[in-house]
Amino acid sequence: MPDRSVAPPSYPIEKLNFDFPDVIRMGDNIKGMIIGTGQHPVVNLELIFKSGKWYETKPGVSYLALRMLTEGTAGRSSEQISNDFESLGSFIDVNAGLDHCSIKVYSLKKYFVKTINILADILLNATFPDHEFKVQSDLRHSQIANQLAKNPHYATLKFNEHYFGDSHPQGKILTPEISDSVTREDAYKYFQTDLLSGPKVILSGHIEDHQINEVDNLLRQLNIDVPGDIDHDLIPKWGRFDVKREDTRQSSLRIGAEGIHRSHADFHEFSITNALLGGFFGSRLMKNIREDKGLTYGIYSSLVNTAHDNYWMISSELMNDKLDEALDEIDREITRLSEEQPPSHELDTLKNYLRGKLLTSLDSIFGKVSVYKNLFLEDLPWTFLEDYLNSVNEIRPQDISEMTGRYFNRRERIEVVVS
After folding, report:
1. Per CATH, the architecture of 22-221 is what?
2. Which pLDDT value is given to residue 226?
3. Angle at 310 between CA 306 and CA 313, to 5 degrees
């Protein structure tokens, strides 16, 4: 009988046996990432296109064009599309982001061919019916209005506006009125000319050759374009910006500055330093500002990485009368971490957390897809994960202080307070 009062022995994770995906060419030289497992009879297909906000011809058009794909084809109504997927136990999900638009379908293995046939009908024969477009446009209007009314969301939008510039795709704030200006014709034209540009494919689950062939056949039917190089100038406005709103007792705080891309030699140590500063529940900011001072329920530091720009951002929600004290404590923690090396026991705790987090993220097929997806989209080597684990194991207290001083303790930063 084991002694339940004694914890079982634990050992550090020093090495992982990574099961890297396969990369193949499909259709007309389109890259595909294959993550196979025979554990469950399910298949997940994701088509990722270079057609997000970065490539928009009109603000808000990519979202509506993508949403309209499932609203009717020449042979199916929106209700029929929904019923056909449901009858197979399949599911479709679409997402419009900054750099990409993605279409995911989840299917049982035995119904994958039928699911692909419905998807092909959507991608080849979508008609964008007027009534359904009006419904989607009105829903988008309400969604944007509700988001803008929430201080945390609005604070992030204002931070992006000041960091990128108000004419930049990530800096321009989309209002209900701007979204309303997108017509059915705008969305349909974007679908015909831009939406299905520069695809990459992720296929995961119980994968066999015939499923790869089905996806290959689908890709060869699509009118796929290669997007041209588009450049948007980054015009940051450093400093503090206060936004006052009526009947608000809390302040939404966002602080941040320029970061570095995942391909940068410092990225892993930069990421680990961010975690110690504010990236997990035992971070410096959380211990000081939440646990010791009781100024907030939560404060976090995160890294935002896109295909074109990268930055770090500290975010928190505070009572208005606690804001200045919290700002002082944030600066104090950043300065202290840059000037005083963290004790070894604190760094060991962080290392154990990061090792366990990496291990947990790879414990399922869909978890693996999430981890490898960003590397695949940015054409980074799979060894990125091995390098990361090596950095976690080898990083020293002096490296943490050096990274803090180099990237976090800087005058050129943006502070946004919405209160």
Report:
1. 2-Layer Sandwich (3.30)
2. 78
3. 115
